[in-house]
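Lesson 9: reading folded outputs for more than one chain in a single document. The general rule is that every protein is listed as its sequence immediately followed by its C-alpha cells, and records are never interleaved. Here is the first one.
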Amino acid sequence: MRAPAVSQHHHPLTGGATFAPSSKTSIRGRSNLAIRMGLKEDAPSLAIVGVTGAVGQEFLSVLSDRAFPYQSIRMLASKRSAGKHLTFEDKDYIIEELNQDSFNGIDIVLFSAGGSISKEFGPIAIDHGSVVVDNSSAFRMDENVPLVIPEVNPDAMAHIKLRSGKGALIANPNCSTIICLMAATPLHRHAKVMRMVVSTYQAASGAGAAAMEELDLQTREVLQGKQPTCKIFKQQYAFNIFSHNAPVLSNGYNEEEMKLVKETRKIWNDMNIKVTATCIRVPVMRAHAESINLQFEKPLDESTARDILKRAAGVVVIDDRASNHFPTPLEVSNKDDVAVGRIRQDLSQDGNHGLDIFVCGDQIRKGAALNAIQIAEILL
C-alpha cells in the first residue's frame, strides 16, 4: 500500500501494511519526470487541500501513476502539519497552512479535508478562479454542483472549463456510491434499473488513516488478551462487524445509506429510482465490498450481463464459479478497477428481470482519489 501517511509495517494477520505518521513523506512516481518535460507551460497549477491525510496522499500517488501534467503543486494542510517536508517525484515541498490566500494562481484544487473545510474554503478557491474538485459530502446534493463519476456521467460537467475566468465546483460522490454505480450503470443503460438493494461491507480506510491504525492496534491487543483501544469507533472493530458509524436519521437509515439513495438518483438523473441500502463496517484494512440486487424494467439474462460488464470501462469481471473465485477486498486494494462477480439471476424475480452481483473496489483509490483526478483529467 503506497498512499496513506508513511512508515509501513505489516499487519499481524493479513500481511497488509498499516501506517504511522511522520514529519517526512516521500511519494515517488514511475520516472514520470521525463514525461512532464515540455508540458509545464500549458499544464495547470494544482493545490491539494488535506495532503497529509489518507486520500491526500493517494492523490499524489494517482497523479504520479497517471503522469498528470502540472506546472506546480501547492501542498496544503492544517496548522499542525504546516512546515513539514514532503518529497514528491524527487522534489522537496514544504507543507503550507491552508488560508484565504492559498489559491492565488491555482487552476485546479483537490479538496479532501472534510466537509467543514470544504464549505469554508471551497467558495474562496472559486472566487480566485480555481476549479474545485471536492471529495467531501458538503456540496454533493447542491442542484448547481455536478456530482460526477467520469465513466458514468461526464456530461454533467461539460459546461465547466479551465481558465475560463470564473471558478467552479465539482463534487466527488461517496465512495460506496462510486463503487456501486461503476458496476450497476452499464446494466442500467441496457435494461433500466427500477429498484436497487445494496448491502455494503466497508473497510477501515473509509474512516481514514487513524481508523486503519486503530484496527491494526486492536487486532494485536485482542490477540494478546488485552482490552481493545476504542478511540475512533465506540466499540471493538477487530474480529467484529457493526452498523456503519454514520449518524442514524429519524427514518432509521444512517447518513451513509441515504448518500447511496440520493446520490444514485442525482447521478442517474432519475428521481424515481428506488434504492435501499444497509451499510456495515467490517474489519478489513482497505477496499469496500457490496452485495447489489437489481430489478430491471427490461429482461436481462446473466450471460448478457456478464458480457456487458466485461466491456465496461473501469470494471474487471472475476466470476469463476468452478473454483469459487470471486472479488475480494485484498485483490482490489491499490487497484484502479472495480471488480464484479457472483453475477447470477435473481431467482425471486420472474422473467429475467432481476440480477444479483457482488462488487469490490478500493475506497481510497477509485472511491476517492482516482475518481477526483479523472474529473481533473476531463478538464485538461
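And here is the second record, again sequence then C-alpha cells.
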Amino acid sequence: MSSADHPGRGRANGATAAASAPAQRRRPRIAVIGTGGTFAMHARHRFDWVEYAESGVVHPIDDLLRTLGDIAPDVELLPLSFRSLGSVSIGPDDWLALARLIHQNAARDPGIDGFVVTHGTATLEETAWFLSLALSLDAPVVLTGAQRPANTAGSDVAANLRAAVAVASAPASRGAGVLVVMDGLVFDARDVSKASSFELNAFEAPPFGPLARVDADAQVVWRRHALTDARRAAALAAPGLLAAETQVDWPRVDIVLSYAGADRVVIDALVAAGTRAIVCAGLAPGRPASGEFGAYVDAVHAGVVVVQATRVPRGSVPVQRFLQAAGILAGGDLSPQKLRIALLLALRRSADAAALQDLLLSL
C-alpha cells in the first residue's frame, strides 16, 4: 500500500527521513589564479608543442575556465585576476605581488578553502618555494602548469587543473602549505624540480619523491605529508611584508655554476657589481672548481655571503671544516635556485653568517 493511501504515514515517514538525512555538504570554494605560461597559451596548430609562445595569444584564467567546462562539478571555482607572465619573465616583485594577492584574499574571504595557481613550468618550482617561505596559511596553495597548450593534441591542461583543484579542496591538504601538482603527482614545494623540457611527467622530487597522487577518479591518495610551512614563513618573511603595498628593495643574490676549468672571472665581476650573496652551484661533492675557490674566499672578505651548493639533483652539502675556514656557508640539500630565494628573504633581516647558516639548514 502506498503512502498516498495513508497521507499521515507518508508525512511522518518523510519527516523522519529528512531528520535522519545528513546535512548537505557545502561545496568547496577554490580560488584559481592564472599567471600565464603554457597553461594559458594558444598554439598555432595541434602539434605545436615547442614554439607555441610565438602565437602571442595568452588566455585570461576566467576565459580558460569557461572553455574547459566542468572539470570539478562539486567545487566552486573563483577566478582571481593577476598579471599574465611567461615563466621566464617572472621575478621577486611578481612573487611578492602573488603572495600578497593570496594573503589578502584569504584574510578577506575565510570561506575560500584553497588556492590554485596556474603557472609556466620553467620557474614554477621557484615561485612555489617563494610562496612557501612567505605565506603562513591553513588553506592549501597548489601550483600547477602544463607541458602542452590546451588546444594541442595530448594537452595536459585540463587534467592538471582537475588534479590541482582536487588537491586544493581535499580536507587532508589543509595545513600542508604550498604544493605542486603535475601529471597526477603531488609534491612539496621545497623538494620539487623540473627535470624534463617537454615530457608530461616533467617534475620530480629526488630523493624523497612525491607526497601523494591523484587517481583517475580525482581522489587524492596521501603517502606522507610535508613539514608545515608556517615555521619557514615565520623565520623568513619580515613583519609587514605581505601587508605592505610598497616596493621591496631586494638584495642582489647570484648563482655561479661550477664546471671543469672554471676560473674567478664571473665571481669577481659579481662582487664588483655589488652582489650581496653568491650561491656556488658546485661540482658533485659540493665543491667549487679549483680556479674559483680563491675568488670565493676574497668575496667573503669583501662582505659577500657565499653559500656552497651542488649542481647535482640528489646532492647535499653539509657543514665542513674547509668551508668554515673560508667563511663559506653550507647549503644542505636545497637546490641552488631555492637557496637563492631563501637568501633574498633572509638578507632583508640579517647578514650574520652564523644565523644564516642555522637558518639554511633548518629549512
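What the second record shows: Residues 92-108 form the longest helix (17 residues).
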